[in-house]
Amino acid sequence: MSAQASRVVASAPAPPGLPRVLAGLDPAGPLSLDRHLGLHGELPGPPSGLDLQGLVAELDRAGLRGRGGAAFPAGAKLRAVARSGRQPVVVVNAIEAEPASSKDRLLLQRLPHLVLDGAQLAAQALGADQVIVCLAASARATAEGVQVAVDERARLFGGPRVSIAAVPDGYVSGEETALLGQLNGRPALPTLKPPYPAERGVGRRPALINNVETLAQVALIARHGASWFAELGTPAEAGSALVSLAGGVARPGVYEIEFGTDVDALIAAAGGATVGIRAVLIGGYAGGWIDGQLRPALTLDDVSLAEHGASLAAGIVFALPDGACGVAETAHVASYLAAESAGQCGPCLYGLAAIAETVSLLARGEAPAGAPERLTRWVAQVAGRGACRHPDGAARFIASALRVFAPEFADHARHGPCEACPAPALLPTPGSGRQTTGARA
Ligand SMILES: Cc1cc2nc3c(=O)[nH]c(=O)nc-3n(C[C@H](O)[C@H](O)[C@H](O)COP(=O)(O)O)c2cc1C
Ligand code: SF4
């Protein structure tokens, strides 16, 4: 064991298996601070626990990568913020912009102290005196619950001041520079990087921006260490992850899995598939479709998923049942993604709109000849052409649909809408009433 690892302090036993992050989950209400500390032990940190170097070393050894979608190494981000040499602000990205995701909301509503522990530990390590929890403006009930947890902690701990900021709802509002725009009194729109948040964040201060689940994992690694973290997962990707599972399964909800779990095992844990599965969408609307026939060989880790052009990203798995129309579902989401462009970059604003329109025409059987080929070309042209990664994600989603649903696209082009087309879309978008709910440890 390394010198740093021996400094990890935990006053409660480490969970031997799963659940880890979802341990103590009570569907009836939030875990109080007393019960949280009873379950996980006291908050470690200086002078008895990890300092900055110790925390960075544990995160590096654990190989923890961000759970907000980009999978950036958590230790490297902490190190970059510390390198700025100025007092930073810690920002909790709780926007959860992906409509099919519900893990962050679940954590903040039921297990807020684990997330706030992670934010507090990061703030302590960096010498930050301020934590800002950024929530979508519509998430009022979650904000009230977080405030109760913050007040509970203020009575017990000193530490950084924790405030809650409401950010306008929107798919790109969760992008980190959009968050910072809002916190700096500008519109919540993405800006070009550099400067990175670790250089210029809130005011003139650098910002550490992490996703809700990332910080919950930080709180566990700080208590129990990287070796414990790596008891689950694969050699390439240690630990556990939260997955928002929906679609054609008996019990949709949020599940905690270890990396490397078979997709079929996850679906079995959710009571099994309700009918056959035509395709699985992994990673949300910036992710990719994978043919349902490949499921037996499919495991939830980025090495396996990369072979299919996908990644677990923010942990979304959607099982599209046989009988649903992959073309109509793709058209529905493509229109949503195009409408969510922040409208600042030409390829994103005009490219996504043209792509969405063509997918819709294809779904209706009204597209001119050569439309699928044109779509494939356009999709390649928008990727990497925006100030943020919104067009890249949308392009990945649509390119995977063109691949996986190629026979259906060809049928729609020849014969027009299929029998399933008139049914309401299964993939959720805001206002569609199909957001994933429920939690399963
Ligand atoms: C269009 C877009 C939307 C995003 N929405 C979210 C979001 O809702 N929540 C989130 O944590 N990260 C979101 N991200 C990623 C953030 O920019 C950032 O990478 C993340 O918050 C960093 O946290 P992590 O390193 O802990 O994952 C989004 C990125 C893009 C390009
Ligand atoms: S790429 Fe799109 S969403 Fe991102 S900043 Fe440009 S216009 Fe806005």
Describe the structure.
The radius of gyration is 22 Å and the shape is globular. The protein has a five-stranded mixed β-sheet, with helices on one face. The chain has a four-stranded parallel β-sheet with strand order 3-2-1-4, sandwiched between helices. Strands 7-10 form a two-stranded antiparallel ribbon. It has three domains: 3-229, Rossmann fold; 240-321, Ubiquitin-like (UB roll); 326-415, de novo design (two linked rop proteins) (Up-down Bundle). It is of the alpha/beta class and 441 residues long. The chain has helices spanning 3-6, 33-40, 52-62, 74-83, 103-110, 112-126, 140-156, 176-183, 212-229, 263-269, 302-306, 326-339, 346-364, 371-382, 390-404, 406-415, and strands at residues 89-94, 130-136, 161-167, 207-211, 240-247, 253-258, 261-262, 277-282, 288-291, 299-300, 316-321. Mean pLDDT is 93; it is low at 1-7 and 436-441. Helix 12 (326-339) runs antiparallel to helix 15. It binds flavin mononucleotide and iron/sulfur cluster. Iron/sulfur cluster binds next to helix 13 and helix 15.
